[in-house]
Design goal:
Chain lengths: 283, 294
């Protein structure tokens, strides 16, 4: 699939999240990694070790910003001070695009530090799209919004999650960070077919893919990012690649983090699916 | 939903059965959350309520090992819950979660009796470490500025530097606590779920420090965290500089109460300034038309 306005970086390859336990290894060994994704908020500080490490990483690697606190789905207006801090970081990293979540998480100046699900209504889609446009205009970089894993659904919803995601990104004219693990987690928690989700989002808007591990409990699945990627998620990833083409892909591993090499090897498994799809397409 | 998320958990780490107005929470949950074939509306909402509290308590648990050692594990979680119920996070980053803890302990000392003063000292000290870790570093004083006479020269201290007047040797106490349990300062945000902070395995408690006046600078050097004890006169001079006094007035004020007479003060002050400059503490105030202004 050729590049498009939301996926100009289809040659980015397979990245991994930059995490503290790996700093020393990365800075000393300088392993070959296609790119690193940083959690923006961890580097939206005024000084000290985080920025020193980031600058050293930027000398060697491509870095893409991923946020957890823009709360694009909040009914409140976007926080301008927060956007200014992101913009300062964008100037530092030269991130080619940045992502955050299709969720809300703050109300009246109080922060939950969580990615809370939204009611899938047309009104919420419009508010969210307006927020995304405002953020993108202010920040001056393309934005990809990520679908979150969820554990609750609202009576107020007027459409499916994938219809809501499509409505938002079309209205905002932005990209999608398609988290196939989140789709799987939500499909199990809410009883929908994850392939319906994959098949029915606007594929030309997918600029990045996330893969991760999750944890199964008796009555629900939690998005824990503390395991290798499970087989159903790899299968969905293969299907996603078939639909959207080569796409920058990132493995998230945020808890019980193993060695750098273990995380990297797990991430590179994605190449199998990409190469297989690429060979099939060539044939 | 936000109301449910922010409400403290019950004693069994579950969502409270009664809503704020006395209705059953299950009734309220059913009014806006769909149930599924495995979970009721209440249970689905409870997942978010639990995750919120586990995350924020886990953060404070990691950021305040010293305060935790003073009040004990169980009381610390009760204190942290009361604090966050009164002062929920007002920042996009968990880094700032403890920013109002000192204020809270001043307002509600019953959470730390009988060690109110010690707990307050420790809360200030542990917050100062968070500031020292990643607050801004301003450009250091230039040699041009040193041409300004001390009677006119005003400087700033680095934003990451905290000057603490303490009633207990919390610095040594915290080192002992960290040695006991390993340094586990939280270091970054994540959007994944975390387990409820688990009480550490029973270890021999570190003896609480005795009352002792300690004047401390908490700072960083080469991006590493340090604490430095200061002599009273040095502390007073630094406080004067921080409060905007000229170098000359800060030195005069710093020595105003000293009873030490056998000290070569000009030489001593020169040495202090040399050390503080080498540590990068002294920086330029806003420059107006080439004149270093206050």
């Amino acid at each position: 699939m050729p590049a498009n306005p939301f996926n100009n970086f289809h040659d980015y390859g397979i990245g991994i999240g930059l995490r503290v336990p790996h700093y020393r290894h990365i800075l000393e060994k300088k392993p070959v990694v296609d790119w690193f994704e940083i959690i923006s908020e961890n580097f939206m500080v005024d000084g000290g070790r985080p920025l020193e490490v980031l600058d050293q990483i930027l000398e060697q690697y491509r870095v893409v910003q991923h946020g957890v606190a823009m709360y694009l789905g909040s009914a409140d207006r976007l926080n301008r001070e927060h956007l200014k801090k992101i913009k300062r970081l964008v100037r530092r990293t030269n991130t080619p695009w940045l992502s955050d979540h299709l969720c809300w998480g703050s109300v009246d100046g109080r922060y939950t530090h969580d990615l809370l699900p939204m009611p899938y209504t047309f009104a919420a889609a419009k508010t969210t799209a307006d927020n995304i446009r405002e953020a993108s205009d202010f920040l001056g970089v393309p934005i990809c919004v990520e679908n979150v894993s969820s554990y609750a659904e609202f009576h107020a919803s007027e459409m499916t999650e994938w219809e809501f995601l499509s409505e938002v990104v079309e209205k905002a004219d932005c990209g999608i960070l398609l988290d196939v693990n989140n789709i799987y987690v939500s499909s199990q928690n809410h009883g929908f077919d994850p392939y319906d989700y994959l098949n029915n989002v606007p594929h030309h808007r997918v600029g990045q893919i996330h893969i991760a591990g999750h944890s199964k409990f008796e009555k629900y699945i939690l998005d824990t990012h503390d395991h290798p990627v499970l087989d159903p998620v790899w299968k969905m990833y293969a299907h996603a690649i078939k639909l959207v083409g080569k796409t920058a892909t990132l493995l998230e591993w945020d808890d019980r983090i193993p060695t750098f090499d273990e995380v990297h090897q797990e991430a590179l498994k994605a190449n199998r699916f990409v190469e297989k799809q690429f060979q099939n397409a060539a044939a | 939903m936000a109301t449910a998320v922010f409400r403290p958990l019950n004693a069994r780490d579950g969502m409270q059965a009664r809503w704020t107005d006395g209705r059953e929470t299950s009734t309220v949950a059913e009014s806006f959350i769909k149930p599924n074939d495995r979970l009721s509306s209440f249970e689905r909402l409870e997942i978010y309520n639990r995750v919120y509290w586990f995350r924020v308590l886990d953060c404070l648990y990691d950021d305040y090992p010293g305060l935790r050692a003073i009040v004990g594990e169980k009381r610390f979680l009760d204190l942290a819950t009361a604090y966050l119920a009164k002062y929920p996070s007002a920042s996009f980053t968990l880094r700032n979660l403890g920013s109002r803890l000192e204020k809270f302990l001043g307002e509600e000392p019953q959470w730390v009796t009988p060690n109110e003063e010690l707990a307050l000292d420790m809360a200030r000290f542990e917050w100062a470490q968070i500031v020292a870790f990643d607050d801004a570093a301003l450009p250091q004083l230039t040699t041009d500025a040193l041409d300004t006479p001390p009677a006119k020269l005003r400087v700033r201290l680095q934003p990451y530097l905290s000057l603490l007047e303490l009633n207990f040797a919390v610095d040594k106490f915290l080192l002992a606590v960290k040695k006991r349990e390993g340094d586990t300062l939280r270091d970054e945000a994540s959007n994944t779920f975390e387990a409820m902070p688990q009480s550490s395995k029973r270890r021999r408690a570190v003896r609480l420090p005795k009352r002792e006046r300690v004047l401390l600078a908490v700072h960083r050097y080469d991006n590493q965290l340090y604490y430095k004890r200061l002599e009273p006169e040095a502390f007073a001079i630094l406080c004067g500089l921080a409060n905007g006094l000229t170098v000359e007035k800060a030195c005069v004020a710093g020595l105003a109460k000293t009873k030490r007479t056998k000290v070569d003060w000009p030489r001593q002050i020169q040495e202090w300034f040399h050390d503080w400059s080498a540590l990068g503490w002294i920086c330029q105030r806003k420059s107006v038309g080439g004149i270093v202004a206050g």
